[in-house]
Design goal:
Blueprint: H1 5-30, E1 41-42, E2 59-63, E3 74-80, E4 88-94, H2 98-111, E5 134-136, E6 143-145, E7 147-153, E8 156-161, H3 165-178
Parallel strand pairs: 1-7
Antiparallel strand pairs: 2-3, 3-4, 4-8, 5-6, 7-8
Length: 185
């Protein structure tokens, strides 16, 4: 290697960028959900409603008023215990079809899931059930989102309780499998 300071600086800069690129690639690969065969969004032509999921034996806790939730035909808070797990909270939002679920529903689901979830009624566009979507303490700064992620399967948006996206999506997959839905893998 040449001892010219400008060449040494360029060489080190190239090495630094290559290292950062490699770290980014590994981070993306490792940051995906634990089950690569489960897709967060799965197109399906079957139109399902709440009755299609009753066979798994969940407890329906609430039925929400869907006025203000564009194009939704139903929304429910339920509890279900996946095999070898503790009971978990879920929210099902039903739409007329897959396209409508994606176009009208995912923005609303994004708003209330994940680490940046909006947890106060004054912050969300559809505030029905807002208190059910949060955990933590009584103080504003101690609130945490109940749902770390969600899945869209056909016309259903399923928000699943979890401490992180992987746990939430694992629970979404377990719920759908228990209902007899072929989620692949």
């Amino acid at each position: 290697m040449a001892s010219d300071p400008a060449q040494v600086l360029r060489y080190r800069t190239h090495l630094a960028w290559a290292f950062l690129f490699a770290v980014a690639i590994v981070g993306v690969a490792c940051g995906s959900n634990g089950d690569a065969s489960f897709l967060k969004i799965t197109p399906d032509e079957t139109v399902r409603d709440i009755d299609d999921f009753t066979r798994i034996g969940f407890k329906r806790a609430r039925e929400y008023d869907v006025n203000g939730l564009p194009d939704a035909t139903g929304a429910y808070m339920i509890y279900y215990t996946p095999a070898n797990s503790e009971p978990a909270q879920y929210e099902l939002r039903i739409y007329p079809d897959h396209t409508t679920a994606l176009e009208s529903g995912t923005g609303y689901a994004d708003e209330v899931t994940g680490p940046e979830a909006l947890l106060r009624e004054v912050d969300v566009r559809w505030n029905e059930g807002t208190r059910d979507r949060r955990g933590g303490g009584a103080f504003r700064d101690s609130l945490t989102p109940m749902y770390a992620d969600y899945a869209v399967y056909g016309n259903v948006i399923l928000m699943c309780e979890g401490r992180d996206s992987t746990q939430s999506l694992d629970r979404c997959k377990a719920f759908l499998e228990a209902a007899g839905v072929d989620v692949g893998g």
